[in-house]
Design a protein that fits this description.
heterodimer; A: mainly alpha; B: mainly alpha; 4 helices
Chain lengths: 91, 165
Amino acid sequence: MKKRVLFMIAVLVVVGTFWGAIDRIHPFGDVPVAPMDDYYIENAQQERSVNNIVTSIVFDYRGFDTLGEAAVLFTAVCSVLALFRKGRERQ
Amino acid sequence: MNPLSVVVRTICDVFAWFIGIFGIYIIIHGHLTPGGGFQGGAVVATMMAFLLVSYGGKKTLSFAKTGLLSAMETTGLLVFIGAGLLGITSTLFFNFLAGQGGIFGAAVPIGPNSGVLNSAGTISVMNMAVGLEVIGGLSLIILYMFKGIRLFDNASESGETGHDR
């Protein structure tokens, strides 16, 4: 009985907070002010001398993110190498 | 895995070159067109899977150099980190080559994409480094997974088998 009451309280708390979070989402299509986007669009070509702004963000402004992606690939190769290095069934 | 028939192998002889050239094109034009190092490297690594399917495991593993691919992977990652660290006097990943003249330093006209290949500074260098890394890494994954399943050990010794085997 006590367990069931605690469970109901937990469900109410979770549903309440979730409902509150959903209620406060800003409406779809109503973009808040984004000064970073405008900065990229206006200044990226001049600052980095590149016409492709997406590439300038991926490799320059957010280069650290791309470093993480490359490290993820390196780790994947290392793990595959450790898994498949030798066929175990033959030995 | 047995090699496929002579039809598939002839088609592979013709089209593997186009796959490789297209991938290298995507890597080199990474700062001009959509795509870049990751995408072009994945396209070139597709060529290794293509060779592996059409020519079978024994022949492909006899000429694929895993040491060279591993060296490409590590070199790409080291060049990428080094190009990021060379501009450390300003910030990490500062583009110190852009607009300075010299290699990859041409200034581009502001506005629509005019296709100046010699531009974008370290972005081009990083594209090529990441492309090198992805070529080596994905090819190594394909080759080592194929070695791991060891399907080619109990394959028949004859060179050409049926049409779809």
